[in-house]
Amino acid sequence: SSELTQDPAVSVALGQTVRITCQGDSLRSHYASWSQQKPGQAPVLVIFGKNNRPSGIPDRFSGSSSGDTASLTITGAQAEDEADYYCNSRDSGDSHHMLFGGGTKLTVL
Amino acid sequence: EVQLVESGGGLVQPGGSLRLSCAASGFTFSNYWMHWVRQVPGKGLVWVSHTNSDGSSTRYADSVKGRFTISRDNARNTLYLQMNSLRAEDTAVYYCAREHTWGSFDYWGQGILVTVSS
Fold it and tell me: Residues B11-64: pLDDT tens digits?
């Protein structure tokens, strides 16, 4: 089966822009979704599909993709954005299987 | 309001069994594919299993295939995960999650801890 690779940790200064990436073969044929998880809480979906935000997610969150790499961009990062971010997609070998990236811990300085 | 509430977790000895439940409310449960995802404390999310809307199709991660069984009762709005032959490495917080479009998960339960230890 495929894998999704994320950088373990990324930092950003308050109010600046940060990009979190996710790489994997499955992303050539399936969209990545992005979820935010804060300590002790369940994940929350922030981006799905080409670049869609669920209701209630601020528009500073956006998604993009090129080839085998998907990106989550936070434009004007806020203190409350400090969290773990996970990408996921369907597996290219069996679309009913799901893949998760290892997660990226975002620190807002 | 959409809610997913897991139950049935706890401490079990290696080789033992446990059945997790996920009670759904606030949406038409029978219309949605559902999943189980687990997370070792301090580690990342790992997909475990999937079932389609009527339970006729299921999938499993290789690490649990042959030991875990996912099922659902649409009349009771409940998702299940029967876990047999449990191992120490199955220790994790287990989440049920609703599949949205494009393979995303739009609602998650609060998670339930399963500890496999003697």
Answer: 999 999 999 999 999 999 999 999 999 999 999 999 999 999 999 999 999 999
Q: What percent of chain B has pLDDT over 90?
A: 99
Which tokens hold the place of A45? 């979906």
Residue B47: which of A42, A45, A99 has the nearest Cβ?
Answer: A99
Rounded Cα distance, B83 and B108, in Å:
20
Contact B108, B3 (CB under 8 A): no
Rounded Cα–Cα distance for residues B95 and B112 (Å): 7
Residue A96: pLDDT band with limits 50, 70, 90: confident
Query: Which distant-in-sequence residues (6+ apart) come within 8 Å of A33 by Cβ?
Result: A45, A47, A48, A49, A87, A88, A89, B102, B103, B104, B105
Chain B residues in contact with A42 (beta carbon < 8 A): 95, 108-111
Q: Could A96 and B59 be called an inter-chain contact, meaning their C-beta atoms sit closer than 8 Å? A: yes
Q: In the A/B pair of chains, how many CB contacts fall below 8 A?
A: 71
Chain A CB within 8 Å of residue B5 CB: no
